Amino acid sequence: MKTIYIFLMFLVVVVAQIFVPAQLIFDQNKVLSKGVPYKFKTQPVDPSDPFKGKYIRLNFEANTAPSKDSTWSFGTPIYVGLGTDSLGFAKVDAISRELVEDSNFIKAKVDWYDLQDKIVHFSFPFDTFYMNETKAYDAELAYFEAQRDSLPNNTYAVVYVLHGKAVLDNVFINHVPIAEYVKKK
Amino acid sequence: MKTKVIEALPELVKNNVISEEVALKIREFYDVQQTDSPNKLFTLFGVMGALLVGLGIILIVAHNWEDFPRSLKTIFAFLPLLIGQVVAGFTILKSKSTTWREAAGTFLFFAVGSSIALVSQIYNIPGDLSTYMLTWILLCMPLVYLLKSNAVAILHLVFSTVYAVSLGYGFNGLAEVPWWYLLVLGFLLPYYFQMISRRPQAQMVSIFNWLVPLSLVLTLGAFLKENGELGYLMYIVLFGIFYNIGKLTFFKGHKLRWNGYLILGSVGTVVTLMILSFIDVWNFDRQASLFSSPEFFMAALLFCIALGILIYVDKRRGIDRSNLYHYAFVLFTILFFVGMVHGLTATILVNILVLLLGLMTIKLGTDKSHFGILNYGLLIITALIVCRFFDTDMSYIIRGLLFVGVGIGFFLSNYIMLKRRNKSVN
Q1: Per-residue pLDDT for B310 more than 80?
Q2: The pTM is what?
Q3: Do B126 and A168 touch (CB under 8 A)?
Q4: Which of A60, B10, B165, B298 is the most exposed place for a label (fewest CB within 10 A)?
Q5: So what's the ipTM on this one?
Q6: Which residues of B touch A179 (CB under 8 A)?
Q7: Dihedral over alpha carbons A39, A45, A48, A53 (to 10 degrees)
Q8: pLDDT (tens digit, 9 = 90+) per residue, B94-146?
Q9: With an 8 Å Cβ cutoff, are A24 and B173 in contact?
Q10: Which sequence spans correspond to the domains of chain A?
């Protein structure tokens, strides 16, 4: 095949290779700029990814909902309707098996069903907050320190939601971004 | 080896073992190889360099430079990608050498991975390892053909395998059947066949002859979901396919160690049968739904492929009828269905099959005067005896005698063959 044709095909690949990460950025920015912010009370833990580095995994408090349906199984999708409590933190208002055409509903995955208490446990997809490799573990420690020193439930994640898509913006301890909080410590 | 041969040439000429002309030809042969090798070495260093730089970038990225503003970090995310693309584009346009193609392809491969990883990191984009790897593989897939790069082809195969294994065995959450693996592997096959047809004896082809079957062995289990017991049948049939591929005329001139299909086919068959020689393995659920499961259809498809290859090998080359390895998968398929009705009968028959395979291997080794094959056969018999120690109530005396017998067998067979070989040399 002629070199020029190969080069033209290569250009198509180049566009695709740039388009995919660019599209990811575009989608995230759209939600961050136009979405509704929710504050999720959370607890950070420090694992790591071989390619993306250190991060804190966020264990959200709002990760359960009462349900009489006992057939929920691990990994199945669940649509969670969000609302806010009197303190302004996110709470679960409703759950559904089917996609709901409501901007406040976001997709999560079922972890397990508690037969005794009739509660379904689930995980949100935005549970990963990347941090500097030296600070991820410190963030976990800072959280526990902050829990001891100040008011409880002082750690939360700000998540923007738009048309069912959720984007994690930042994590705060005592209203200070977690990275800054760790740096100050 | 090469230096030794060249050093020995004057002495061989002096003692009239070879003529001056032959000595000159041998020297010329090695000279040509020598002028070829620096290029190969340069390519290897180029690939290694690009590989290390690429991996280094991923590690630097993983540090997470949170003091930098998001926009600057985004520029850094795209920088290695753009550099890699420019170098690869230049390599294609200027029709640069193999070294350029391999190094540029390797660097670009890692640059794509690092840019997606960095963007995910900067914008906290969730996603599991398998989705990330699949996106990475799909974006780099065309580079195999556009750059004609063996290094990218190897990376493609290795990363596809890691993707299928991590998704299929549920290393990162819920296990799912990695159907995309079939597509990405299928995409690579024309390149592999092209390599085989152009330079069948090339070392790179031999590397692929190991990597492709290894990848399939690792990933086949990832396609099993509810009817795991059919996995035994699928694996034995897969190893049957490998063994018969390894016996194709194409592999005739290849050294045994470079025939990954034959070795994996043979060892895989024996190891799987060895597992099935335990009666407890046959205690699986016998449900009618097994015959309508996707696993059953996959096993049936594999069996048809295996049978097709067996018939093809037989027509082209004529299989050695006494070589059980050729059709062990057919015998086992019958045994498998016998085992579904009566586990004990299947266990006994599998033990006999392994024993026959061991004896046949010893005979093959003796016929070919090949110590490796001979000892492999003896090893099969020994392993079978060791396995039976766990689930039979033989007395210690019988067990001891059996071991002594096998030990003597090892010694005698090797000794006799060594003597025979020395005799034929003399």
Answers
A1: yes
A2: 0.80
A3: yes
A4: B10
A5: 0.77
A6: 66
A7: 40
A8: 888 888 899 999 999 999 998 998 888 888 887 778 888 999 999 999 999 99
A9: no
A10: 1-34, 37-184
